[in-house]
Design a protein that fits this description.
The chain has 351 residues and is an alpha/beta fold. It is built from 12 helices and 11 strands. The protein has helices at residues 2-29, 43-49, 56-59, 69-74, 81-85, 120-134, 156-169, 225-230, 244-254, 283-288, 290-293, 336-343, and strands spanning 98-99, 109-116, 140-148, 174-178, 182-184, 198-199, 203-204, 220-224, 268-271, 305-311, 316-321. The termini are far apart. Catalyzes the transfer of galactose onto proteins or lipids. InterPro entries: Galactosyl_T, Galactosyl_T_C, Galactosyl_T_N, Nucleotide-diphossugar_trans.
């Protein structure tokens, strides 16, 4: 009797263990089953939302316009070894990491801005894959590597601000801010601008293809140059990891500028392995006061020294020293009464 009961308990434990292991295996191997839901543009809405703007040199081409509907509809999986290991048809890429299709006239000109410091392995992988990937999208693009030379904590947002100014020198109407360790998996994630700023990597493998929260606006984002200037760019004060993306989102909200996303299937990205950046211990305090600084902290308060510009086959590399002092004490806030009135208003810039 005792032996039978013991055997039953043993079998129950064995079954429970196997069932738990099976669930864990499903969770590990099939993360898409658990993907969160969020509002996104349908294929028809995407085509209507795309902003057709190009640089002057592209307008001079006498070719039929390129089409993009088939790229979105097929959404071909691209993250294959053939695209990751070597650059195919490298002769198509112009000096400075620029490309435009020759068989049709691109409808979009995009500056891809990548903040960088001492990530050689990730940069190598990024450049190879992205040039192979982007040329299949039939767009005009140029990759700008904005490199921080000094040894202060990495200031990602400030490098984006600088990159936007450089891109404006070349007349690019569309900006894509991309971390060097994020790569798109499928071709349907068009590297172009939409009417609203777009969060492009909403289905990231590191998050098990979930969107952690709807206000997330970092990693890889697209925004029109004119919109970026309207919100005074990003904050220059976030040194180290964290906070700058949320601050940027709040800037957009303060200007009543919403964001959009494509479907999870069109927004799948992978993250390359890397050593995490040092966290910004002041990020929470900076974020809490961010709404009061938007007008004074950004493109109009940039301080930096440009060290050199190098034009490579695969990229335009611009190096900067950001060690000039730039802190909250340098910013003049409105008087207290106006601060209190502005904190809870969306028309902050009219305060």
């Amino acid at each position: 009797m005792y032996i039978r009961i013991y055997q039953r308990k043993y079998h129950l434990i064995e079954i429970t263990t196997k069932f738990t292991c099976a669930l864990a295996l499903i969770y590990i191997c099939l993360p898409h089953r658990f993907a969160s839901h969020y509002n996104y543009l349908s294929l028809k809405q995407i085509e209507n939302a795309l902003v057709s703007q190009v640089t002057h040199n592209i307008t001079l081409q006498h070719l039929d316009e390129c089409s993009y509907g088939d790229i979105l509809a097929e959404n071909r999986y691209m993250y294959r070894a053939q695209y990751r290991e070597e650059i195919l048809r490298s002769e198509e890429i112009l000096s400075g990491g620029e490309y435009y299709p020759e068989k049709c006239r691109a409808r979009f000109s995009t500056a891809i801005i990548v903040p960088y410091r001492q990530r050689e392995e990730q940069l190598h992988s990024f450049l190879i894959y992205m040039h192979n990937y982007l040329r299949h999208q039939r767009i005009h693009y140029r990759i700008f590597l904005i490199e921080q030379y000094d040894q202060k904590p990495f200031n990602r947002a400030k490098l984006f601000n600088i990159g936007s100014n450089i891109a404006a020198e070349y007349g690019f109407p569309c900006l894509i801010f991309s971390d060097v360790d994020l790569l798109p998996l499928n071709l349907g994630s068009l590297y172009v601008c939409t009417q609203l700023p777009r969060h492009m990597c909403s289905a990231l493998d590191m998050w098990r293809f979930n969107l952690p929260y709807t206000g997330l606006f970092g990693g890889v984002v697209s925004i029109r140059t004119e919109q970026f200037r309207v919100v005074n760019g990003m904050s220059n004060l976030y040194e180290g990891w964290g906070g700058e993306d949320d601050d940027f989102y709040e800037r957009l909200q303060a200007r009543n500028i919403d964001i959009c996303r494509f479907s999870p299937e069109l927004s799948e990205f992978t993250m390359l392995r890397h050593k995490p950046e040092e966290k910004n211990e002041n990020r929470v305090a900076l974020l809490r006061a961010g709404v009061l600084r938007h007008k004074m902290d950004g493109l109009n308060s940039l301080m930096y020294d440009e060290k050199e510009r190098r034009i490579h086959n695969l990229k335009s590399d611009i190096g900067y020293d950001l060690s000039k002092v730039q802190n909250q004490e340098n910013l003049k806030y409105p008087d207290d009464s106006k601060q209190l009135n502005c904190v809870h208003r969306l028309d902050l810039f009219d305060c």
